[in-house]
Amino acid sequence: MFLRPALRRDDLEQIKSETMAEIVDNRDNDRSLAIQGFRSSLFGAHTYGRSVLGHEKSISGVQLKDIKQLVKKHVVASNMVLGVSGDITRSELMSLLDKEFANLKKGSAALKAVRAPKLKKGRSLLVIDKPERTQSQIVIGTLGSHNRDRDHTALYVANTAFGGTFTARLMNEIRSKRGWSYGASSRLGHDREREAWWMWTFPAMDDAVACIKVQWELYQDFVRRGISKKELDFAKEYLINSHAFDIDTAAKRVDQLVDAEVMGLPPRYYENYVKRVKAVTLKEANTALKRRLSDNDVSFVIVATANKIEKQLRELKLFDSIKLLSFDEL
After folding, report:
1. First vs last Cα of the chain: how many Å apart?
2. pTM
3. What are the CA-CA distances from residue 56 to residues 19, 40, 71, 74, 330 (Å)?
4. What angle do CA 239, 243, 248 make, to 5 degrees?
5. From residue 229, how far is each of 204, 232, 240, 287 by CA, in Å?
6. For residue 330, what pLDDT band results from cuts at 50, 70 and 90?
7. If you placed Cys at 139, which of 14, 38, 191, 285 could pair as Cys (CB 3.0 to 4.6 Å)?
8. Chain center to CA of 8
9. Is the pLDDT of residue 110 over 80?
10. Computed over its alpha carbons, how large is the radius of gyration of the chain?
11. Helix (H) or strand (E) holding 146
């Protein structure tokens, strides 16, 4: 596959057809629409705002010569990261690689640098209009951090306390107390540059506006006042205990090593994960929240039937801007 790729025209046309079908299928998935709409709203023209699937126009324009040129440029020895696990010694592995990859093209091809994303100012709302919805999909978030930040682990622990477990604050307030959404969670992404922090709920249409209001209040309290010592201790214990499931197979451990190499992280980054989590203090967690998450510059996205909810959303007087977009325009 690396040394002698077939790169057949028929195969390319089949993959293009399958990718186009996947793009169309995603429009039937309201959660996917909400997440893609959120990334597009938050990151704008930045690379992180675009779907890796592309779109109909970009896919249709791909030619076989483009694929061949890409392979020729990037499939070179210095660009390859190889992770191996199993019943094999290092010397056996190196002998095998020297034999099988001897003809791999030498040289290097620098990857295009990804610029750091800029924080979108103000509170914006994107309404993705989809007919006949009885349930909404809501994504609310802002820029978070990247895992080379010194306080990334502290922010990760704080996020776990807020929306990373079934008994976290967000789930307790949205599902347990009010019964608005079966699930309610928050996530802190990671990539080579600063990624998004976001929370997700999916209430019934009738509860959507009230849910957004409460989520906003919870978020502001989270950033401004932080988490409690009790929440911190629970989050740390959960992360430390559940870490066993992240390394319980050789494949998972190799995946972490490869990820560290590709992301430009220290070689022992994942090996030291538990140590870093244990070291997080309450002050560090709450300081990371104030430093990394804006309490005002936030992107709101909802997939809903616009004519049933737009008036109520405007009456919240929460947003600096409101944009309406049909689900098939994403």
Report:
1. 34
2. 0.93
3. 9, 17, 23, 25, 11
4. 165
5. 34, 5, 16, 14
6. confident
7. 38
8. 33
9. no
10. 23
11. none
Number of Cβ atoms within 10 Å of the Cβ of 71? 14
Residue bearing tokens 């801007």: 321
Query: What is the residue type of 209?
Result: V
Q: Which two tokens stand for residue 271?
A: 């090996």
Nearest C-alpha neighbor of 257 from the set 6, 81, 71, 124:
81
| CA–CA separation, 305 and 307 (whole Å) | 6
How far is residue 33's CA from residue 325's CA, in Å, rounded to a whole number?
Answer: 11
What gap in Å lies between CA 144 and CA 291, rounded to an integer? 10
pLDDT score, position 75: 87
Joined tokens for residue 161? 């306390």
The token pair that represents 122 in the structure block: 């103000």
The closest alpha carbon to 141, from 295, 311, 3, belongs to 295
Q: In this model, does residue 1 exceed pLDDT 90?
A: no
Per-position b or e across 207-231, b if 16+ CB within 10 A of its CB: bbbebbebbbebbeebbeebbeeeb
Q: And the tokens for 76?
A: 């070179």
237 Cβ neighbours under 8 A, 6+ residues apart:
none
Distance CA 21, CA 180 (A): 33
Helix axes 208-225, 282-292, angle to 10 degrees: 120
CB atoms within 10 A of CB 301: 28
Q: What is the pLDDT of residue 109?
A: 74
Per-position DSSP letters for 307-326, written without gaps between them: HHHHHHHHHT---SEEEEEE
Name the token pair of 96.
């095998």
Query: Any bridge partners for residue 199, and if so which?
Result: 140, 186
Using pLDDT thresholds of 50, 70 and 90, give the confidence band for residue 73. confident
Say if residues 75 and 105 touch (Cβ distance below 8 Å): yes
Confidence at residue 112, expressed as pLDDT on a 0 to 100 scale: 77
Alpha-carbon span 31 to 39, nearest angstrom: 12
Kindly give the residue spans of alpha helices, DSSP state H, lying in 121-272: 152-163, 169-171, 208-225, 229-242, 250-263
